[in-house]
Design brief:
The structure holds 2 protein chains of 2 kinds.
Chain A lengths: L1 E7 L2 E7 L8 E5 L6 H8 L7 E3 L1 E2 L2 E2 L5 H7 L1 E3 L12 H8 L8 H6 L2 H20 L15 H13 L5 E5 L7 H16 L3 E5 L3 H7 L2 E6 L2 E6 L1 H6 L1 H8 L5
Parallel strand pairs in A: 3-9, 3-10, 7-8, 8-9
Antiparallel strand pairs in A: 1-2, 1-4, 5-6, 10-11
Chain B lengths: L8 H17 L3 H26 L8 H14 E2 L4 E2 L2 H20 L7 H21 L1 H4 L12 E2 L2 E2 L4 H23 L2 H11 L1 H6 L4 H27 L9 H14 L4 H28 L11 H15 L8 H7 L6 H14 L2
Antiparallel strand pairs in B: 1-2, 3-4
The chains are: A alpha/beta, B mainly alpha.
Chain lengths: ~250, ~350
Protein backbone atom coordinates (compact mmCIF):
# COMPACT_ATOMS: atom_id res chain seq x y z
CA UNK A 1 0.00 0.00 0.00
CA UNK A 2 1.62 3.20 -1.15
CA UNK A 3 0.60 6.72 -0.15
CA UNK A 4 -3.06 5.89 0.07
CA UNK A 5 -5.50 8.63 1.01
CA UNK A 6 -9.24 8.29 1.31
CA UNK A 7 -11.43 11.31 1.85
CA UNK A 8 -15.15 11.27 2.49
CA UNK A 9 -16.15 14.84 1.71
CA UNK A 10 -13.99 16.89 4.03
CA UNK A 11 -13.19 13.99 6.30
CA UNK A 12 -9.82 12.37 5.78
CA UNK A 13 -10.36 8.75 6.86
CA UNK A 14 -6.95 7.50 5.75
CA UNK A 15 -4.09 9.89 5.14
CA UNK A 16 -1.06 9.14 2.96
CA UNK A 17 -0.75 5.67 4.38
CA UNK A 18 2.02 3.37 3.22
CA UNK A 19 2.81 -0.06 4.57
CA UNK A 20 3.50 -3.61 3.49
CA UNK A 21 2.15 -6.95 4.62
CA UNK A 22 4.77 -9.65 4.09
CA UNK A 23 3.81 -12.99 2.63
CA UNK A 24 3.08 -15.90 5.01
CA UNK A 25 2.90 -13.77 8.13
CA UNK A 26 0.23 -12.76 10.58
CA UNK A 27 0.00 -8.99 10.75
CA UNK A 28 -2.35 -7.06 13.00
CA UNK A 29 -3.63 -3.54 12.61
CA UNK A 30 -4.68 -1.81 15.79
CA UNK A 31 -5.79 1.65 16.72
CA UNK A 32 -8.55 3.50 18.53
CA UNK A 33 -12.10 3.51 17.17
CA UNK A 34 -12.42 5.66 14.07
CA UNK A 35 -8.72 5.41 13.27
CA UNK A 36 -9.52 4.21 9.73
CA UNK A 37 -8.75 0.52 10.12
CA UNK A 38 -11.90 -0.77 8.46
CA UNK A 39 -11.49 1.85 5.74
CA UNK A 40 -8.11 0.28 4.95
CA UNK A 41 -9.87 -3.07 4.48
CA UNK A 42 -12.61 -1.50 2.39
CA UNK A 43 -9.98 0.12 0.19
CA UNK A 44 -8.13 -3.16 -0.18
CA UNK A 45 -11.23 -5.10 -1.27
CA UNK A 46 -12.42 -2.44 -3.66
CA UNK A 47 -15.45 -1.12 -1.80
CA UNK A 48 -13.82 2.31 -2.08
CA UNK A 49 -11.44 3.55 -4.71
CA UNK A 50 -8.61 5.46 -3.02
CA UNK A 51 -8.79 9.23 -3.52
CA UNK A 52 -5.02 9.15 -3.90
CA UNK A 53 -2.35 6.49 -3.95
CA UNK A 54 -2.18 2.89 -5.08
CA UNK A 55 -2.57 -0.54 -3.59
CA UNK A 56 -0.45 -3.41 -4.86
CA UNK A 57 -0.98 -7.09 -4.37
CA UNK A 58 1.57 -9.63 -5.57
CA UNK A 59 3.30 -6.86 -7.47
CA UNK A 60 0.16 -5.84 -9.36
CA UNK A 61 -1.95 -2.79 -8.81
CA UNK A 62 -5.40 -3.68 -7.51
CA UNK A 63 -6.72 -0.28 -6.42
CA UNK A 64 -9.61 0.69 -8.65
CA UNK A 65 -10.59 -2.89 -9.50
CA UNK A 66 -14.11 -4.11 -8.74
CA UNK A 67 -14.57 -6.15 -5.57
CA UNK A 68 -15.24 -9.44 -7.37
CA UNK A 69 -12.08 -9.01 -9.48
CA UNK A 70 -10.01 -8.45 -6.34
CA UNK A 71 -11.45 -11.61 -4.80
CA UNK A 72 -10.41 -13.46 -7.95
CA UNK A 73 -6.86 -12.16 -7.48
CA UNK A 74 -6.75 -13.89 -4.11
CA UNK A 75 -7.92 -11.55 -1.35
CA UNK A 76 -10.78 -12.68 0.90
CA UNK A 77 -12.21 -11.03 3.98
CA UNK A 78 -14.63 -11.18 6.87
CA UNK A 79 -16.70 -8.29 8.14
CA UNK A 80 -16.82 -6.38 11.39
CA UNK A 81 -20.60 -6.68 11.43
CA UNK A 82 -21.14 -10.26 10.37
CA UNK A 83 -22.42 -10.36 6.80
CA UNK A 84 -23.27 -13.99 6.22
CA UNK A 85 -26.03 -15.06 3.86
CA UNK A 86 -28.41 -15.36 6.78
CA UNK A 87 -31.06 -17.52 5.17
CA UNK A 88 -28.75 -19.93 3.46
CA UNK A 89 -27.36 -23.00 5.20
CA UNK A 90 -23.80 -22.95 6.50
CA UNK A 91 -22.65 -25.31 3.78
CA UNK A 92 -24.36 -23.19 1.09
CA UNK A 93 -22.59 -20.14 2.49
CA UNK A 94 -19.23 -21.85 2.06
CA UNK A 95 -20.18 -23.21 -1.38
CA UNK A 96 -21.04 -19.65 -2.42
CA UNK A 97 -17.56 -18.71 -1.27
CA UNK A 98 -16.19 -21.26 -3.72
CA UNK A 99 -17.79 -19.33 -6.59
CA UNK A 100 -14.44 -18.24 -8.03
CA UNK A 101 -13.15 -21.80 -7.88
CA UNK A 102 -15.96 -23.02 -10.11
CA UNK A 103 -16.14 -23.07 -13.88
CA UNK A 104 -19.75 -24.03 -14.59
CA UNK A 105 -21.26 -21.72 -17.17
CA UNK A 106 -24.86 -20.62 -17.27
CA UNK A 107 -25.56 -23.41 -19.75
CA UNK A 108 -24.02 -26.00 -17.41
CA UNK A 109 -26.22 -24.66 -14.63
CA UNK A 110 -29.26 -24.78 -16.87
CA UNK A 111 -28.76 -28.34 -18.06
CA UNK A 112 -26.97 -29.86 -15.05
CA UNK A 113 -24.39 -31.36 -17.34
CA UNK A 114 -22.22 -34.17 -15.98
CA UNK A 115 -19.39 -31.64 -15.66
CA UNK A 116 -21.61 -29.39 -13.56
CA UNK A 117 -22.72 -32.29 -11.36
CA UNK A 118 -19.22 -33.53 -10.65
CA UNK A 119 -18.10 -30.00 -9.92
CA UNK A 120 -21.04 -29.51 -7.54
CA UNK A 121 -20.04 -32.70 -5.73
CA UNK A 122 -16.42 -31.66 -5.47
CA UNK A 123 -17.31 -28.18 -4.25
CA UNK A 124 -19.65 -29.56 -1.63
CA UNK A 125 -16.98 -31.96 -0.36
CA UNK A 126 -14.51 -29.09 -0.13
CA UNK A 127 -17.11 -26.98 1.72
CA UNK A 128 -17.62 -29.75 4.27
CA UNK A 129 -13.85 -30.00 4.67
CA UNK A 130 -13.65 -26.28 5.40
CA UNK A 131 -16.50 -26.51 7.88
CA UNK A 132 -14.63 -29.28 9.66
CA UNK A 133 -11.49 -27.18 9.62
CA UNK A 134 -13.39 -24.39 11.37
CA UNK A 135 -15.12 -26.87 13.67
CA UNK A 136 -18.58 -26.26 12.23
CA UNK A 137 -19.45 -29.60 10.64
CA UNK A 138 -22.38 -30.16 13.00
CA UNK A 139 -23.99 -26.95 11.78
CA UNK A 140 -23.61 -27.66 8.06
CA UNK A 141 -27.33 -27.75 7.31
CA UNK A 142 -28.40 -25.01 9.70
CA UNK A 143 -29.17 -21.51 8.58
CA UNK A 144 -26.30 -19.13 9.13
CA UNK A 145 -28.48 -16.91 11.28
CA UNK A 146 -29.30 -19.74 13.68
CA UNK A 147 -25.64 -20.29 14.56
CA UNK A 148 -24.13 -18.90 17.74
CA UNK A 149 -22.21 -15.66 17.47
CA UNK A 150 -18.81 -17.33 17.70
CA UNK A 151 -19.82 -19.93 15.13
CA UNK A 152 -21.00 -17.20 12.77
CA UNK A 153 -17.58 -15.56 13.00
CA UNK A 154 -15.90 -18.88 12.21
CA UNK A 155 -18.35 -19.51 9.37
CA UNK A 156 -17.34 -16.17 7.86
CA UNK A 157 -13.73 -17.35 7.99
CA UNK A 158 -14.65 -20.67 6.37
CA UNK A 159 -16.57 -18.84 3.65
CA UNK A 160 -13.61 -16.50 3.04
CA UNK A 161 -11.18 -19.45 2.86
CA UNK A 162 -13.42 -21.12 0.30
CA UNK A 163 -12.20 -18.77 -2.42
CA UNK A 164 -8.70 -20.17 -1.78
CA UNK A 165 -7.18 -16.75 -1.02
CA UNK A 166 -3.53 -15.82 -0.70
CA UNK A 167 -4.37 -13.00 1.70
CA UNK A 168 -7.12 -13.20 4.31
CA UNK A 169 -8.41 -10.01 5.94
CA UNK A 170 -10.11 -10.55 9.28
CA UNK A 171 -12.07 -7.59 10.65
CA UNK A 172 -12.32 -8.04 14.43
CA UNK A 173 -12.60 -11.83 14.33
CA UNK A 174 -12.66 -12.18 18.12
CA UNK A 175 -15.41 -9.63 18.80
CA UNK A 176 -18.09 -11.15 20.97
CA UNK A 177 -16.18 -14.36 21.62
CA UNK A 178 -15.67 -15.88 25.05
CA UNK A 179 -12.13 -16.71 26.29
CA UNK A 180 -12.39 -20.35 25.21
CA UNK A 181 -13.51 -19.36 21.72
CA UNK A 182 -10.67 -16.86 21.52
CA UNK A 183 -8.14 -19.58 22.33
CA UNK A 184 -9.63 -21.73 19.56
CA UNK A 185 -9.51 -18.77 17.21
CA UNK A 186 -5.78 -18.32 17.84
CA UNK A 187 -5.21 -21.97 16.94
CA UNK A 188 -7.37 -21.56 13.84
CA UNK A 189 -5.61 -18.42 12.62
CA UNK A 190 -2.19 -20.08 13.07
CA UNK A 191 -3.43 -23.11 11.15
CA UNK A 192 -4.60 -20.83 8.35
CA UNK A 193 -1.17 -19.15 8.19
CA UNK A 194 0.52 -22.54 8.18
CA UNK A 195 -1.59 -23.58 5.21
CA UNK A 196 0.07 -20.80 3.23
CA UNK A 197 -2.41 -17.95 3.64
CA UNK A 198 -1.19 -14.56 4.77
CA UNK A 199 -3.40 -13.17 7.55
CA UNK A 200 -3.98 -9.47 8.10
CA UNK A 201 -6.33 -8.70 10.96
CA UNK A 202 -7.95 -5.83 12.79
CA UNK A 203 -8.50 -6.59 16.44
CA UNK A 204 -9.14 -4.78 19.70
CA UNK A 205 -8.31 -7.69 21.96
CA UNK A 206 -4.69 -6.85 22.83
CA UNK A 207 -4.06 -10.18 24.49
CA UNK A 208 -4.93 -11.95 21.24
CA UNK A 209 -3.06 -9.44 19.09
CA UNK A 210 0.15 -9.70 21.13
CA UNK A 211 -0.01 -13.47 21.19
CA UNK A 212 -0.64 -14.07 17.54
CA UNK A 213 0.86 -11.34 15.39
CA UNK A 214 4.34 -11.25 14.01
CA UNK A 215 4.12 -7.58 13.18
CA UNK A 216 1.73 -4.84 14.25
CA UNK A 217 0.68 -1.66 12.47
CA UNK A 218 -0.83 1.09 14.61
CA UNK A 219 -3.25 3.58 13.08
CA UNK A 220 -4.57 6.79 14.58
CA UNK A 221 -6.55 9.51 12.80
CA UNK A 222 -5.92 7.76 9.50
CA UNK A 223 -2.17 7.85 9.88
CA UNK A 224 0.30 5.17 10.80
CA UNK A 225 1.90 6.09 14.10
CA UNK A 226 3.91 2.96 14.66
CA UNK A 227 4.89 -0.29 13.01
CA UNK A 228 6.96 -3.12 14.38
CA UNK A 229 7.25 -6.21 16.53
CA UNK A 230 4.61 -6.74 19.22
CA UNK A 231 7.15 -6.16 22.01
CA UNK A 232 8.17 -2.79 20.58
CA UNK A 233 4.60 -1.66 20.03
CA UNK A 234 3.70 -2.50 23.60
CA UNK A 235 6.19 0.03 24.93
CA UNK A 236 5.93 2.65 22.18
CA UNK A 237 5.04 5.96 23.89
CA UNK A 238 3.09 7.25 20.87
CA UNK A 239 0.88 4.16 20.89
CA UNK A 240 0.23 4.49 24.59
CA UNK A 241 -0.66 8.11 24.05
CA UNK A 242 -3.09 7.28 21.25
CA UNK A 243 -4.86 4.78 23.44
CA UNK A 244 -4.78 6.52 26.81
CA UNK A 245 -4.53 10.18 25.79
CA UNK A 246 -1.60 12.54 26.15
CA UNK A 247 -0.33 13.07 29.69
CA UNK A 248 -1.61 16.39 31.01
CA UNK A 249 0.71 18.59 32.95
CA UNK B 1 -50.22 -28.73 -14.57
CA UNK B 2 -46.63 -29.36 -13.95
CA UNK B 3 -45.20 -31.51 -11.26
CA UNK B 4 -46.37 -30.97 -7.76
CA UNK B 5 -43.48 -32.08 -5.67
CA UNK B 6 -40.37 -31.99 -7.75
CA UNK B 7 -38.07 -33.83 -5.43
CA UNK B 8 -40.61 -36.57 -4.80
CA UNK B 9 -40.42 -38.39 -8.13
CA UNK B 10 -43.46 -40.47 -7.31
CA UNK B 11 -45.65 -37.46 -6.51
CA UNK B 12 -44.34 -35.76 -9.62
CA UNK B 13 -45.18 -38.74 -11.80
CA UNK B 14 -48.66 -38.91 -10.29
CA UNK B 15 -49.40 -35.25 -10.99
CA UNK B 16 -47.92 -35.61 -14.45
CA UNK B 17 -50.13 -38.62 -15.20
CA UNK B 18 -53.19 -36.72 -13.96
CA UNK B 19 -52.28 -33.79 -16.20
CA UNK B 20 -51.91 -36.10 -19.19
CA UNK B 21 -55.35 -37.68 -18.85
CA UNK B 22 -57.33 -34.52 -18.02
CA UNK B 23 -58.36 -33.86 -21.67
CA UNK B 24 -59.69 -37.43 -21.91
CA UNK B 25 -61.81 -37.13 -18.78
CA UNK B 26 -62.99 -33.56 -19.14
CA UNK B 27 -64.26 -33.13 -22.67
CA UNK B 28 -65.53 -29.63 -22.03
CA UNK B 29 -63.50 -27.49 -24.42
CA UNK B 30 -63.85 -24.35 -22.34
CA UNK B 31 -62.27 -26.07 -19.35
CA UNK B 32 -59.27 -27.14 -21.39
CA UNK B 33 -59.16 -23.68 -22.86
CA UNK B 34 -59.01 -22.27 -19.38
CA UNK B 35 -56.19 -24.61 -18.42
CA UNK B 36 -54.15 -23.44 -21.41
CA UNK B 37 -54.56 -19.81 -20.36
CA UNK B 38 -53.77 -20.71 -16.76
CA UNK B 39 -50.70 -22.54 -18.05
CA UNK B 40 -49.42 -19.36 -19.70
CA UNK B 41 -49.64 -17.67 -16.34
CA UNK B 42 -47.83 -20.57 -14.67
CA UNK B 43 -44.97 -19.96 -17.12
CA UNK B 44 -45.04 -16.23 -16.39
CA UNK B 45 -45.06 -16.81 -12.65
CA UNK B 46 -42.13 -19.24 -12.94
CA UNK B 47 -40.19 -16.63 -14.87
CA UNK B 48 -40.94 -13.82 -12.46
CA UNK B 49 -39.98 -16.15 -9.63
CA UNK B 50 -36.43 -16.26 -10.99
CA UNK B 51 -36.20 -12.48 -10.89
CA UNK B 52 -37.96 -11.81 -7.59
CA UNK B 53 -37.93 -15.13 -5.75
CA UNK B 54 -34.35 -16.19 -6.48
CA UNK B 55 -32.43 -12.98 -7.11
CA UNK B 56 -34.61 -10.69 -4.98
CA UNK B 57 -35.03 -8.05 -7.70
CA UNK B 58 -38.51 -6.57 -7.31
CA UNK B 59 -39.77 -6.25 -10.88
CA UNK B 60 -43.21 -4.62 -11.22
CA UNK B 61 -43.22 -4.44 -15.00
CA UNK B 62 -42.89 -8.09 -15.90
CA UNK B 63 -45.89 -7.98 -18.28
CA UNK B 64 -43.66 -5.93 -20.61
CA UNK B 65 -41.68 -9.07 -21.48
CA UNK B 66 -44.91 -11.00 -21.99
CA UNK B 67 -45.89 -8.26 -24.45
CA UNK B 68 -42.52 -8.41 -26.21
CA UNK B 69 -42.75 -12.19 -26.59
CA UNK B 70 -46.31 -12.02 -27.88
CA UNK B 71 -45.61 -9.21 -30.33
CA UNK B 72 -42.47 -10.92 -31.57
CA UNK B 73 -44.59 -13.91 -32.50
CA UNK B 74 -47.34 -11.71 -33.95
CA UNK B 75 -44.94 -9.85 -36.23
CA UNK B 76 -42.87 -12.80 -37.38
CA UNK B 77 -45.60 -15.37 -37.73
CA UNK B 78 -48.62 -13.70 -39.33
CA UNK B 79 -49.79 -11.97 -42.54
CA UNK B 80 -48.78 -8.64 -40.92
CA UNK B 81 -45.43 -8.53 -42.73
CA UNK B 82 -46.09 -11.75 -44.59
CA UNK B 83 -43.43 -13.48 -42.52
CA UNK B 84 -44.46 -16.96 -41.47
CA UNK B 85 -41.86 -18.47 -39.20
CA UNK B 86 -43.06 -21.69 -37.61
CA UNK B 87 -44.02 -21.53 -33.96
CA UNK B 88 -41.26 -23.99 -32.99
CA UNK B 89 -38.65 -21.56 -34.26
CA UNK B 90 -40.50 -18.68 -32.67
CA UNK B 91 -40.23 -20.22 -29.21
CA UNK B 92 -36.48 -19.78 -29.43
CA UNK B 93 -36.60 -16.45 -31.23
CA UNK B 94 -39.21 -14.86 -28.95
CA UNK B 95 -37.62 -16.03 -25.72
CA UNK B 96 -34.29 -14.79 -27.07
CA UNK B 97 -35.76 -11.38 -27.91
CA UNK B 98 -37.49 -11.17 -24.53
CA UNK B 99 -34.20 -12.14 -22.86
CA UNK B 100 -32.32 -9.41 -24.73
CA UNK B 101 -34.90 -6.88 -23.62
CA UNK B 102 -34.54 -8.26 -20.12
CA UNK B 103 -30.87 -7.25 -20.29
CA UNK B 104 -31.64 -3.89 -21.91
CA UNK B 105 -34.21 -3.01 -19.29
CA UNK B 106 -32.17 -4.52 -16.50
CA UNK B 107 -28.93 -2.72 -17.26
CA UNK B 108 -30.00 0.81 -16.27
CA UNK B 109 -31.48 -0.48 -13.01
CA UNK B 110 -28.40 -2.32 -11.75
CA UNK B 111 -27.52 0.25 -9.14
CA UNK B 112 -31.05 0.38 -7.83
CA UNK B 113 -32.47 -1.73 -5.10
CA UNK B 114 -35.84 -2.43 -3.52
CA UNK B 115 -38.35 0.38 -3.89
CA UNK B 116 -36.31 2.28 -6.46
CA UNK B 117 -35.93 -0.75 -8.67
CA UNK B 118 -39.68 -1.40 -8.35
CA UNK B 119 -40.52 2.12 -9.53
CA UNK B 120 -38.23 1.96 -12.57
CA UNK B 121 -39.50 -1.46 -13.63
CA UNK B 122 -43.03 -0.18 -13.14
CA UNK B 123 -42.18 2.54 -15.64
CA UNK B 124 -40.86 0.00 -18.17
CA UNK B 125 -44.05 -1.98 -17.72
CA UNK B 126 -46.02 1.08 -18.81
CA UNK B 127 -43.70 2.13 -21.62
CA UNK B 128 -43.64 -1.16 -23.52
CA UNK B 129 -47.39 -1.65 -24.19
CA UNK B 130 -47.65 2.09 -24.85
CA UNK B 131 -44.93 1.76 -27.47
CA UNK B 132 -46.75 -1.10 -29.16
CA UNK B 133 -49.88 1.05 -29.10
CA UNK B 134 -48.16 4.04 -30.69
CA UNK B 135 -46.11 2.21 -33.34
CA UNK B 136 -49.32 1.75 -35.26
CA UNK B 137 -47.71 1.42 -38.68
CA UNK B 138 -46.13 -1.83 -37.47
CA UNK B 139 -48.59 -3.00 -34.83
CA UNK B 140 -51.97 -1.65 -35.98
CA UNK B 141 -52.11 0.34 -32.73
CA UNK B 142 -55.14 -0.41 -30.55
CA UNK B 143 -56.52 -2.99 -32.99
CA UNK B 144 -53.54 -5.23 -32.47
CA UNK B 145 -52.32 -7.89 -34.86
CA UNK B 146 -54.74 -10.65 -35.71
CA UNK B 147 -55.06 -13.89 -37.69
CA UNK B 148 -51.73 -15.15 -36.39
CA UNK B 149 -50.42 -18.39 -37.80
CA UNK B 150 -51.83 -21.52 -36.27
CA UNK B 151 -49.25 -24.08 -35.27
CA UNK B 152 -48.80 -27.32 -37.11
CA UNK B 153 -46.92 -30.30 -35.81
CA UNK B 154 -45.63 -32.69 -38.51
CA UNK B 155 -48.65 -31.87 -40.66
CA UNK B 156 -51.15 -31.96 -37.77
CA UNK B 157 -53.03 -28.65 -37.61
CA UNK B 158 -53.82 -27.27 -34.15
CA UNK B 159 -56.85 -25.32 -35.44
CA UNK B 160 -59.27 -24.12 -32.82
CA UNK B 161 -59.08 -27.27 -30.74
CA UNK B 162 -57.63 -26.40 -27.32
CA UNK B 163 -56.36 -29.93 -26.61
CA UNK B 164 -53.10 -29.76 -28.62
CA UNK B 165 -52.40 -26.37 -27.04
CA UNK B 166 -52.96 -27.97 -23.69
CA UNK B 167 -50.25 -30.57 -24.31
CA UNK B 168 -47.95 -27.95 -25.77
CA UNK B 169 -48.39 -25.87 -22.64
CA UNK B 170 -47.80 -28.90 -20.46
CA UNK B 171 -44.48 -29.58 -22.19
CA UNK B 172 -43.44 -25.94 -21.82
CA UNK B 173 -44.30 -25.92 -18.13
CA UNK B 174 -42.41 -29.14 -17.41
CA UNK B 175 -39.39 -27.71 -19.21
CA UNK B 176 -39.70 -24.41 -17.36
CA UNK B 177 -39.92 -26.18 -13.99
CA UNK B 178 -36.86 -28.28 -14.78
CA UNK B 179 -34.91 -25.24 -15.90
CA UNK B 180 -35.94 -23.22 -12.84
CA UNK B 181 -35.00 -26.08 -10.52
CA UNK B 182 -31.66 -26.69 -12.23
CA UNK B 183 -30.81 -23.01 -12.02
CA UNK B 184 -31.76 -22.85 -8.36
CA UNK B 185 -29.48 -25.77 -7.49
CA UNK B 186 -26.42 -24.45 -9.25
CA UNK B 187 -23.56 -22.02 -9.04
CA UNK B 188 -25.70 -19.32 -10.65
CA UNK B 189 -28.65 -20.00 -8.34
CA UNK B 190 -26.44 -19.69 -5.28
CA UNK B 191 -25.02 -16.45 -6.65
CA UNK B 192 -28.56 -15.07 -7.06
CA UNK B 193 -29.52 -16.03 -3.54
CA UNK B 194 -26.31 -14.55 -2.17
CA UNK B 195 -27.15 -11.28 -3.93
CA UNK B 196 -30.65 -11.42 -2.49
CA UNK B 197 -29.25 -11.91 1.00
CA UNK B 198 -26.35 -9.44 0.91
CA UNK B 199 -25.09 -7.90 -2.30
CA UNK B 200 -21.84 -6.54 -0.88
CA UNK B 201 -20.89 -9.85 0.69
CA UNK B 202 -21.82 -11.57 -2.59
CA UNK B 203 -19.34 -9.36 -4.46
CA UNK B 204 -16.70 -10.38 -1.92
CA UNK B 205 -17.28 -14.01 -2.89
CA UNK B 206 -16.02 -13.08 -6.35
CA UNK B 207 -19.53 -13.01 -7.78
CA UNK B 208 -19.86 -10.56 -10.65
CA UNK B 209 -23.11 -9.08 -9.33
CA UNK B 210 -23.75 -7.17 -12.54
CA UNK B 211 -23.62 -10.29 -14.69
CA UNK B 212 -25.60 -12.34 -12.19
CA UNK B 213 -28.38 -9.78 -11.95
CA UNK B 214 -28.56 -9.34 -15.72
CA UNK B 215 -28.75 -13.10 -16.20
CA UNK B 216 -31.67 -13.22 -13.75
CA UNK B 217 -33.45 -10.50 -15.74
CA UNK B 218 -32.68 -12.23 -19.03
CA UNK B 219 -33.65 -15.76 -18.00
CA UNK B 220 -36.79 -14.53 -16.21
CA UNK B 221 -37.80 -12.56 -19.29
CA UNK B 222 -37.15 -15.49 -21.63
CA UNK B 223 -39.80 -17.54 -19.79
CA UNK B 224 -42.35 -14.86 -20.62
CA UNK B 225 -41.24 -15.05 -24.24
CA UNK B 226 -42.33 -18.70 -24.26
CA UNK B 227 -45.60 -17.80 -22.55
CA UNK B 228 -46.17 -14.97 -25.02
CA UNK B 229 -45.77 -17.20 -28.08
CA UNK B 230 -48.02 -19.94 -26.73
CA UNK B 231 -50.67 -17.53 -25.51
CA UNK B 232 -50.74 -15.41 -28.66
CA UNK B 233 -50.85 -18.40 -30.99
CA UNK B 234 -53.80 -19.90 -29.13
CA UNK B 235 -55.68 -16.62 -29.01
CA UNK B 236 -54.79 -15.82 -32.63
CA UNK B 237 -54.28 -12.11 -31.92
CA UNK B 238 -52.36 -9.67 -29.75
CA UNK B 239 -53.36 -6.18 -28.65
CA UNK B 240 -51.69 -3.71 -26.31
CA UNK B 241 -54.40 -3.86 -23.65
CA UNK B 242 -53.52 -7.49 -22.83
CA UNK B 243 -50.33 -6.36 -21.13
CA UNK B 244 -51.40 -3.61 -18.79
CA UNK B 245 -50.01 -3.04 -15.32
CA UNK B 246 -52.70 -5.25 -13.77
CA UNK B 247 -51.14 -8.26 -15.53
CA UNK B 248 -47.81 -7.60 -13.81
CA UNK B 249 -49.59 -7.29 -10.49
CA UNK B 250 -51.64 -10.40 -11.18
CA UNK B 251 -48.45 -12.43 -11.73
CA UNK B 252 -46.80 -10.92 -8.67
CA UNK B 253 -49.89 -11.83 -6.63
CA UNK B 254 -49.47 -15.43 -7.76
CA UNK B 255 -45.97 -15.43 -6.29
CA UNK B 256 -47.09 -13.83 -3.05
CA UNK B 257 -50.01 -16.21 -2.67
CA UNK B 258 -48.12 -19.36 -3.60
CA UNK B 259 -44.86 -18.68 -1.84
CA UNK B 260 -42.06 -16.66 -3.33
CA UNK B 261 -38.96 -18.62 -4.24
CA UNK B 262 -40.70 -21.99 -4.09
CA UNK B 263 -41.32 -23.52 -7.51
CA UNK B 264 -44.23 -25.71 -6.40
CA UNK B 265 -45.75 -22.82 -4.49
CA UNK B 266 -45.56 -20.54 -7.48
CA UNK B 267 -47.28 -23.12 -9.72
CA UNK B 268 -50.05 -23.67 -7.17
CA UNK B 269 -50.45 -19.95 -6.52
CA UNK B 270 -50.87 -19.17 -10.19
CA UNK B 271 -53.40 -21.98 -10.68
CA UNK B 272 -55.41 -20.83 -7.67
CA UNK B 273 -55.57 -17.21 -8.81
CA UNK B 274 -56.32 -18.16 -12.42
CA UNK B 275 -59.22 -20.38 -11.40
CA UNK B 276 -60.48 -17.70 -9.08
CA UNK B 277 -60.40 -15.30 -11.99
CA UNK B 278 -62.12 -17.54 -14.51
CA UNK B 279 -64.35 -19.86 -12.51
CA UNK B 280 -64.97 -18.98 -8.94
CA UNK B 281 -65.81 -15.30 -9.30
CA UNK B 282 -68.19 -15.79 -12.27
CA UNK B 283 -69.82 -18.66 -10.37
CA UNK B 284 -70.23 -16.50 -7.29
CA UNK B 285 -71.73 -13.75 -9.40
CA UNK B 286 -74.34 -15.99 -10.97
CA UNK B 287 -74.97 -17.55 -7.56
CA UNK B 288 -75.67 -14.15 -6.07
CA UNK B 289 -77.92 -13.23 -8.99
CA UNK B 290 -79.88 -16.43 -9.35
CA UNK B 291 -80.07 -17.88 -5.86
CA UNK B 292 -79.64 -14.97 -3.51
CA UNK B 293 -81.37 -12.49 -5.83
CA UNK B 294 -78.69 -9.97 -5.04
CA UNK B 295 -77.10 -7.80 -7.63
CA UNK B 296 -73.46 -8.30 -6.65
CA UNK B 297 -71.01 -8.60 -9.51
CA UNK B 298 -67.94 -10.35 -8.17
CA UNK B 299 -66.15 -10.34 -11.50
CA UNK B 300 -66.19 -6.56 -11.71
CA UNK B 301 -64.72 -6.26 -8.25
CA UNK B 302 -62.05 -8.89 -8.91
CA UNK B 303 -59.18 -6.56 -8.15
CA UNK B 304 -60.76 -5.60 -4.86
CA UNK B 305 -61.04 -9.30 -4.07
CA UNK B 306 -57.41 -10.02 -5.07
CA UNK B 307 -56.37 -7.09 -2.94
CA UNK B 308 -58.22 -8.50 0.03
CA UNK B 309 -56.68 -11.94 -0.56
CA UNK B 310 -53.18 -10.49 -0.71
CA UNK B 311 -53.76 -8.49 2.46
CA UNK B 312 -55.08 -11.59 4.21
CA UNK B 313 -52.10 -13.65 3.03
CA UNK B 314 -49.74 -10.96 4.27
CA UNK B 315 -51.47 -10.89 7.65
CA UNK B 316 -51.90 -14.59 8.30
CA UNK B 317 -49.45 -16.45 6.10
CA UNK B 318 -46.87 -14.02 4.77
CA UNK B 319 -44.69 -16.83 3.44
CA UNK B 320 -47.44 -17.94 1.02
CA UNK B 321 -49.32 -21.24 0.71
CA UNK B 322 -46.27 -23.39 0.00
CA UNK B 323 -43.31 -21.38 1.20
CA UNK B 324 -39.67 -21.82 0.41
CA UNK B 325 -37.57 -22.75 3.41
CA UNK B 326 -35.90 -19.36 3.48
CA UNK B 327 -39.04 -17.27 3.30
CA UNK B 328 -40.64 -19.23 6.09
CA UNK B 329 -37.65 -18.84 8.38
CA UNK B 330 -37.29 -15.20 7.44
CA UNK B 331 -40.86 -14.28 8.23
CA UNK B 332 -41.14 -16.35 11.36
CA UNK B 333 -37.76 -15.48 12.78
CA UNK B 334 -38.03 -15.57 16.54
CA UNK B 335 -41.27 -17.57 16.65
CA UNK B 336 -39.55 -20.73 17.70
CA UNK B 337 -36.45 -21.42 19.69
CA UNK B 338 -33.43 -22.48 17.65
CA UNK B 339 -33.55 -26.15 18.64
CA UNK B 340 -37.13 -26.48 17.41
CA UNK B 341 -36.20 -24.60 14.26
CA UNK B 342 -33.28 -26.93 13.65
CA UNK B 343 -35.54 -29.93 14.10
CA UNK B 344 -38.04 -28.47 11.69
CA UNK B 345 -35.30 -27.95 9.17
CA UNK B 346 -34.26 -31.56 9.46
CA UNK B 347 -37.83 -32.60 8.78
CA UNK B 348 -37.88 -30.27 5.80
CA UNK B 349 -34.71 -31.86 4.54
CA UNK B 350 -36.18 -35.31 4.93
CA UNK B 351 -39.32 -34.29 3.10
CA UNK B 352 -37.03 -32.96 0.40
CA UNK B 353 -38.56 -29.51 0.25
Amino acid sequence: MRGVTQRFGGLVAVNALSFTVEKDTIVAMIGPNGAGKSTVFNLTTGIYKPTEGQIFFDGQQISGLATDKITKRGIARTFQNIRLFAFMSAVDNVMTGEHVQMKSSMLDSLLHTPRQRSEEKRVKARAMELLRFCNLERDAENYARNLSYGSQRRLEIARALASDPKLLLLDEPAAGMNPKEKEDLIVLIRAIRDSGVTVFLIEHDMHLVMQISERITVLDHGEMIAEGLPADIRTNPQVIEAYLGAPTI
Amino acid sequence: MGRFKLEGPRAGALVMAACLVIPFIDRNGSHINFLVDAGAFVLLALGLNIVIGFAGLLDLGYAAFFAIGSYAFAMLSSPQFNIHWPIWVMFFVASGIAGIFGILLGAPTLRLRGDYLAIVTLGFGEIVPQTFLNLSQYTNGPNGISSLDQPTFFGYKFGFNPVPYYYLMLVLIVLAILVARNLRDSRLGRAWMAIREDELAAAHMGINTTAAKLSAFALGASFSGLAGVAYASKLGLVSPDQFKFNVSVFILSMLVLGGMGNITGVVVGSLVLSSLDRFILPQLTSFSHDVMHLNIDFTNSRFLIYGIIIVLVMLFRPEGLIPSRQRKAELHAGDTDPSVAAQEQQEYNKAGI
